[in-house]
Amino acid sequence: MSTPLEPDQFELLVAEPARLTDIRIGYARVSTGGQKLDRQIDALTAAGCRRIFADKKSGKNDMRPELTACHAFLAAGDTLVVPALDRYGRSLQDLITMVGELRKREIGFTSLHENLDTTTPGGRLVFHVFAALAEFIRELIVSGTREGLAAARARGKVGGRPTVVNPDIIRAARDMLPNPEHSITSIAKLLGVSPGTLYNHIPDLCELRATRTRIPAQLEAGTQ
After folding, report:
1. What is the rounded average pLDDT of the residues 207-218?
2. At 25, which helix (H) or strand (E)?
């Protein structure tokens, strides 16, 4: 006898968007000045994209104006197509947040390299797994950082805050910064450092914070 599906499990099987427009919009990105967009654009064109937005990093500029324009251009029923997941999201949490915003607007998402499609039950299931994995990793990093700080304090090597910011602390901070539930002060307190330390060791901190409001705001703007 099969077990009845819970409401959230049933939601994974529901077609989404409910009505597809068959309009596919592409987004491409290169992260260094020496890289070319040709292959990505060719792949997106072959996938049937009617319009393609593309960001190309220039010098120290990490902003992605074309992504913002792409999100604003998309309408309910459209599908956003990217060559690969790492061309769209800079981190797993970034990816999950943006795909979640697309889903709220009833916009599909497809990644060609990974063969993922959120308009199918299988594709949506994969992203639910991604979300759970991202939260699990974040908790492991924070837990490990706390244990390390506690051990260091017990040995008398740390007073209130660590004198050396290790990679685990930076990774944990980067993972939490885009989350609107965490302020910079609360993140610093949780990791045992000062807010100034985060600013000093994370050059793109302001951009990470802006991402949490800039992109969702653009997404919601498209629904008006």
Report:
1. 53
2. strand 24-30
